[in-house]
Design goal:
- The structure is a single chain.
- The chain contains five helices and 13 strands.
- The two termini are 25 Å apart.
- The strands form three sheets. The protein has a six-stranded antiparallel beta sheet with strand order 5-6-7-13-12-9. It has a four-stranded mixed beta sheet with strand order 1-11-10-8. A three-stranded antiparallel beta sheet has the order 2-3-4.
Length: 171
């Protein structure tokens, strides 16, 4: 198996050239539910939570005090297939911008996720190591991956939920 970066996954999604429409539906909590038709009119549904920001690597970031809770968007969980294993770093370790924070294994590939921030790993969600189905089934709740305390909190490179939806529509 080869290690692939999330940006490579973005290029893979462009292979699905049968994208006729992007149907937006809103859930009762103000989040966006999306239906994306794929080949043979198969529709895959996923949601975009409204109280988070997103990276172009399909990670979500939720600011809590001086910390960032980070997880995988439902889009990525659907796109890469069932998450079989999550590899977490040790809590309280220093992490540098651009270095791998964590990795996810599926039946097809291993995906490493680089950090957008330098900081300290405050917490890791050990439950996702024990039960990786949490990433598949509860990406925005129990399936969170890691919490970091960034040295500098600069969220300008992250997308608002509506910007992330637009980004997905362009894939």
């Amino acid at each position: 198996m080869q290690w692939k970066t999330p940006s490579h996954l973005t290029r893979l999604t462009k292979i699905h050239e049968v994208r006729i429409w992007l149907k937006l539906k809103y859930d009762g909590d103000g989040g966006v539910l999306l239906g994306v038709p794929l080949m043979d009119e198969e529709v895959v549904e996923f949601s975009v939570a409204h109280n988070r920001k997103y990276s172009r690597d399909h990670l979500w970031y939720q600011e809590k005090d001086d910390r960032l809770m980070i997880g995988v968007s439902e889009f990525l969980a659907v796109e890469i297939g069932e998450v079989l294993r999550v590899i977490l770093p040790q809590a309280e370790n220093e992490i540098d911008e651009g270095r791998d924070m964590f990795s996810i294994w599926t039946a097809e590939e291993k995906v490493a996720f680089p950090s957008m921030f330098s900081g300290v790993i405050a917490e890791v969600n050990g439950e996702v190591e024990i039960n990786p189905d949490l990433v598949n089934d509860s990406a925005y709740d129990h399936g969170w991956i890691i919490i970091i305390e960034p040295h500098e909190m600069d969220l300008e490179n992250l997308l608002e939920p509506d910007e992330y939806v637009e980004f997905l529509a362009e894939l």
